[in-house]
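Entry 12.
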Amino acid sequence: MSGRPDRTSTGPRPAALRRGLALEYATLGWNVVGVVVLAVAALSARSVAVAGFGLDSLIEIGASTVVLWELTGADEGRRERALRLIALAFALLALYLLVQGVVVLASRHHAGHSPLGIAWTSATAVAMFFLAAGKARTGRALGNPVLVTEGRVTLVDGILATSVLVGLVLNAALGWWWADPAAGFVLVYYATSECAAILRHGPS
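Predicted 3D structure (tokens):
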């Protein structure tokens, strides 16, 4: 008898698997739309922060694709490769935040106001926190460390959306152009720590 989980029977596990797939498809769809919206917002406001958040959306698309690949045919080798790819996504996110923050602060770049960016990052923060919580619960129900770990990528996406939102609002309201890149440095430590933890010990 195969040790592979039964994905066709009825019961709690198949229901949780369907829920996990639905959460990943929702994340993927949201971020595909987000790349387009953020590109328009970044060009109109000449905002480095908004453009950078678009790159984060691309990273989230990659992480969601990895999890969909893993959920549709898990084995130990595939799971290990999926976890390494998610660790890479964290590393890329940390690198992007670090480079973006240093460049913006060094150049003293003053972005224009971005009502579209404010609206989208507000909605994204709410959506990503909701999806991250769902992935954490579903991943634990499935005993799937890849889904749990990718849920943390989604959580970082929500936190980043919040920090970008705060920066955009402070820039628009008070002219504090430096607020957005400064907030991003907090996430550099978080993303780097998650990457190192996955590579050393696997998911927590």
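Annotation: The chain has a mean pLDDT of 82. The radius of gyration is 18 Å.
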